[in-house]
Amino acid sequence: MWKRFFPVVGVALLLGACDNENTVFIPVDDFPAPPEALDGEYFNRAVTLRWFLAAQWNGETFRIYGRRVGDASCLIIAEVTSCADGACEYSDTNIIESVGYEYFVSAVDPGTGAETDSDAVIFVSVPSFTPPAVPVGLEVVALDNTNYVRWSDNARSASDFAHYRVYLVTDGGATLLGETDSEGFLDELADNGVSSGYVVSSVDTYGHESLDSFEHVGTPRPDFRGELVFSFSDDVARSGFRFADSDQIDPIVGGTSSARHFRLETDALGWWLVPGPSAEVFPEGSFTTDLKCGVAADAQCQDWTTAPTSGYVGGDIFLEPEFSYMLRVVGDDGMIHYGTIRVALLGTDQTGAEIMVFDWAYQLQAGNPQLVGR
Fold first, then answer.
1. Residues 176-215: tens digit of each pLDDT
2. What is the tally of structural domains in the chain?
């Protein structure tokens, strides 16, 4: 058995926690001050113990004692010789899952070997190490100077699910881009013409991280596909849109701008297109597979490129993915023009903000309902 010295005060508590036959009593005045406010917690395959130095601390070191619940005796598992700013910390990684542990800390006089134990014995329950499921269904939607990464919510089936981590795949491995508790992430650092690969993992409340998903790649490009607006309630400044005559003009405007042709709003029912003061919308959308079907399009391609010339209204329109919607607007020339948008996706970004990604076309010739892009 290893030899320890206990002060007369407080012996009963610690002898009950760890049996010791060779206890030697020496005068209380010769003992170091005990560690204060001992606490402990589990996170990601480690139990971390923290305590504070007593006001009477005189450079003593500390010994960490621990045992699994049910074991008869404690073992010395570590010795801590330095602390910072009056606080000390030690992480025990020699643990197994689904087991409880008890710990206490002793201040040790290096000259006499006398020890004074912490006032309390800390109990920490170690959970299962099993992380949430690997996210599946990862895909990357390429936007203009942005990639939108989205995936399935299968990892949420874990009762202790917490969030996701999104990584950018590099030659050296993977770089953490950020964390999110939604199934979507906007990489606004992506550049047009540069391909970027992404993987996603899931993390539980204890810090256990799953393996990475399969990698998917996206390449942003400058065109009228992949436009992005935010919900008016989440980002007023980027919730409005105005059809532009030139690719040198940013079509995204504030949701309160009088120049907007529409803005995006959301409520408990879903996403809504709300026409601006100089715009009207045709009251029915149409399912489409593309904004416009070109020469090389397959036989199943469906588009809607000719706008109705009447029947437009100023009311809000409920939006659905893969549907196209027609608008009749007043252009920069003060004349009536027709424009269309096709909703590519409705979702949320990594902060939980609601967004719409859409493609659009705008007829530059006033009064012409043929929407063939530029």
1. 999 999 999 999 999 888 899 999 999 999 999 999 999 9
2. 3
**Distance between the two ends of the chain, CA-based, in angstroms?**
87
Query: Per the structure block, which two tokens stand in for 147?
Result: 């990639």
Q: Among the three residues 218, 251, 269, which one is the final residue of a domain in this structure?
A: 218
CA-closest candidate to residue 279, choices 236, 341, 222, 226: 341
Residue 68 domain flag: yes
User: φ, ψ for residue 156 (rounded to 5)?
Assistant: -70, -10
CA atoms in the 13 A half-sphere facing the CB of 183: 17
| H runs (alpha helix) in the chain | 11-17
Same domain, 182 and 297: no
Task: Examine the domain organization and report whether 151 and 264 are in the same domain.
Answer: no
Of 97, 126, 155, at which residue does a domain stop?
126
Number of H helices, E strands in the chain: 1, 28
Structural domain contains residue 131:
no
pTM: 0.74
Q: Provide the domain limits for residue 12.
A: 4-126
- Cα(100)–Cα(78) distance, integer angstroms: 18
The answer, yes or no, to whether residue 316 has pLDDT greater than 80, is: yes
With bands split at pLDDT 50, 70 and 90, how would you rate the model's confidence at 295? low
For the record, the structure tokens of 205 come out as 């409340």
Residues 146-180 pLDDT 10s: 899 999 999 999 999 999 999 999 888 899 999 99
Tell me, yes or no, whether 213 and 231 share the same domain.
no
Q: How far is 348 from 343, CA to CA, in rounded Å?
A: 14
Q: Provide the strand spans (E) within 23-146.
A: 23-25, 36-42, 47-52, 61-68, 75-80, 87-92, 99-108, 115-117, 122-126, 139-142
Q: Is 342 a domain residue?
A: yes
Is residue 370 a part of any domain in this protein? no
What is the secondary structure of 330-344 as a DSSP string?
E-TTSSEEEEEEEEE
The distance of Cα 302 from the centroid of its chain, to the nearest Å, equals 36
